[in-house]
Amino acid sequence: MRRLPPLGSLRAFEAAARRLSFKNAAAELGVTPTAVSHQIRQLEDGLGVALFERGPRKVALTPKGEALLPPLRRAFDAMADAVEDARRKPSRRVATLSATVAFTAKLLVPKAARFRDLNPDWDLRLHAADSVVDLAGGEADAAIRYGVAPRPGLTSVPLMTDLFAPLASPRLGLATPADLARVALIHFDWRVSGASAVPSWRLWGETAGVSGVDWESGVAFNDEASAIQAAVAGQGAALLSRALVADELASGVLAQPFGPELGGFSYDFVCPQGAEDRPAVAALRRWIEAEVAPGRQPPSDLL
């Protein structure tokens, strides 16, 4: 535990000793010369030594005062530098982006480190949820929404459109649509606001003109990310977003053995109307447009 005299008395001594004037020290500290004299007297009484030799028109430091001044001056200079440094450095700011679990895992997490490169003074918080967050209520600064416009009260910036295709592990050896009858079909629950028809195995079968397959059978998941993992693990064939599994297609752990593809919806960057110029929203949009969806479309090498 430090045993120090009152800070006020130390400041008064340092200013007076540096200037060799109680009057000038008082002007620097914004107090009266009498107050400075009183503070220094208290310090001398507490230390039991004289720090100044007082004359009728001037003051001079005693040997004890001369010894005390340099370390005190260094200490006050260090404190002033520390305070200025704290004042100069901005506090970390956090930008929160909400997106579905699958979009967060597949497209946002791999690019998260680049957010700090583009926005050095910001930290990124990713809110992964398939439920719609209340942007107006401040649950997130912005969101990636999937579905059908318009979105009342929100400003939307289209990022990319989607295509859905039958995908499976090459280990399953699927060659023709008829092969779907011998593997499990992987489904997931859709939560697309405003959509009259969503991609499904039944819709795909009708589009492809394939019969003899129970389109409702198989394994169902309540989220797209789990459906993707099941397909990668070889548990069956899934009707998946090619935009979300571009890496799996490129690496060969998933393949599209046949068509057709079904059109999906638009991924949009959204924020509350009037919030477009907020620093957090601008930081998120800068990152999304540069790193996550720079004019991105679903891969077309197998179309």
From TrEMBL:
Q: What Gene3D superfamilies does this protein map onto?
A: Periplasmic binding protein-like II, Winged helix-like DNA-binding domain superfamily/Winged helix DNA-binding domain
Q: Which InterPro entries does this one have?
A: LysR-type_TF_proteobact-type, LysR_HTH_N, LysR_subst-bd, WH-like_DNA-bd_sf, WH_DNA-bd_sf
Task: Give one GO term, molecular function aspect.
Answer: sequence-specific DNA binding
- Assigned keywords, A-Z: DNA-binding, Transcription, Transcription regulation
- Pfam families tied to this protein: HTH_1 (PF00126), LysR_substrate (PF03466)
Tell me the GO BP annotations in alphabetical order.
DNA-templated transcription
Q: Where are the annotated coiled coils located?
A: none
- The HTH lysR-type domain covers which part of the protein? 5-62
Name the PANTHER family for this protein. Answer: GLYCINE CLEAVAGE SYSTEM TRANSCRIPTIONAL ACTIVATOR, HTH-TYPE TRANSCRIPTIONAL REGULATOR
The UniProt similarity line reads: Belongs to the LysR transcriptional regulatory family.
Could you tell me what this protein is called? LysR family transcriptional regulator
**Which species is this UniProt entry from?**
Methylopila turkensis
